[in-house]
Amino acid sequence: MSRAVGTVAFTTTIPVEVIIAAGYRPVDLNNVFVSSPDAPLLVERAEMSGFPRSCCAWIKGIFESFRRGRDTLPIDVFVAVTEGDCSNAKVLKELIDLERGVKSYLFPFPQDRSPDAMRSEIEKFAAFLGTTVAAAEKVRHDLRPLRRSLERLDDLSWRHPGLVKGVENHRMLVSASDFNGDPVAFRADVERLVAEKETILKSGGYPNNLKPLAYLGVPPIFDLYSFLEEKGAVVVFNEIQREFAMPGEFPDLTAQYLAYSYPYSAEYRFSKAIKELRRRKVAGIIHYVQSFCHRQIEDIILRRMAVEANLDIPIITIEGDKPQKELDGRQRTRLEAFIETL
Ligand code: SF4
Predict the structure, then answer these.
(1) Where does residue 112 fall: left (phi above 0), alpha (psi -120 to 50 degrees), or beta otherwise?
(2) Hey, whose CA ends up nearest to atom 7 of ligand 1?
(3) Which one, of 172, 150, 163, 158, lies nearest residue 214 by Cα?
(4) Which residue has the CA at smallest separation from atom 8 of ligand 1?
């Protein structure tokens, strides 16, 4: 892969292969925001700029991360996903257009999951960035070893609960949306972690009595993994983060981005997740919902689908609002009681 000559920043996972093929560095603004040591300050700044209290903290964090990144990265293109992600992203794009000086683009995931429509969206995106689908397919091929290593890490996570920490699985898979801006360096990091875990597996030196849990929902705005491990449980399935890693073999980009469940219906997403919950034999499910997010309503769909599928796995719904260093008292008490009942 050639060296990047500019930066494309975006609001959620998009066909990153197109960005790399066009010679840009991919940057997922969610990752920039949540990994920032002053993430709470970014939310506050957005509120001071006029964002309402009753708006999701991710949107505020993305906006302020864009403003900061425009000067430091700098950002050449901003891409928002509307169809398949967040209705807030549409107005966020308009707001960012007012900031001037950065080209912007709306990428829609076709909600009928039609191959023709998906192919056409990828073609349009490639043309916008000045590249071709053929070049992006070549990048897809080059990224396969990296995606396979992520799949291996994820596999180790559930086949040997406790070997891979929940937060390690989360961090690596969630970073697959932009490969931390550098796929070559990121691949080396993933391979190093996999090798380390395979060595530990041989020695048996890891806690092997933790209760295996699933984490469903958008990635958390705070770290809940360490607390779970303190209380005797470990997350062995990070649903959406795993989707970002796009495990599996696909004939082309169209098939890969149609199999990716996050932007499509809750029913499609959860039916895919239910297969993994069964395969991984999890003892409990944490459904994380973000305050002021339309996806909170999907909790009803998840619970209905779990009953219809005779899943018989306890579910706890945990709501997060702003970035925080530690879980609050209520979240801790509820999670602790949940783990005890498993
Ligand atoms: S958590 Fe929900 S409201 Fe917030 S950015 Fe994501 S999809 Fe939008």
Answers:
(1) alpha
(2) 86
(3) 158
(4) 86
Confidence band, pLDDT 50/70/90 cuts, at residue 26: very high
- List pLDDT tens digits, range 103-144: 999 999 999 999 999 999 999 999 999 999 999 999 999 999
Cα(21) to centroid(ligand 1), Å = 28
Cβ atoms of residues 56 and 62 within 8 Å: no
Token pair of 193, please? Answer: 């972690």
Ligand 1 atom with minimal separation from the 295 CA: 2
Mutate to test the pocket of ligand 1, among 12, 33, 59, 318 (most ligand atoms within 8 A of CB): 59
Structural domains of the chain ordered from first start: 6-133 (3.40.50.11890)
pTM for this model (two decimals) = 0.96
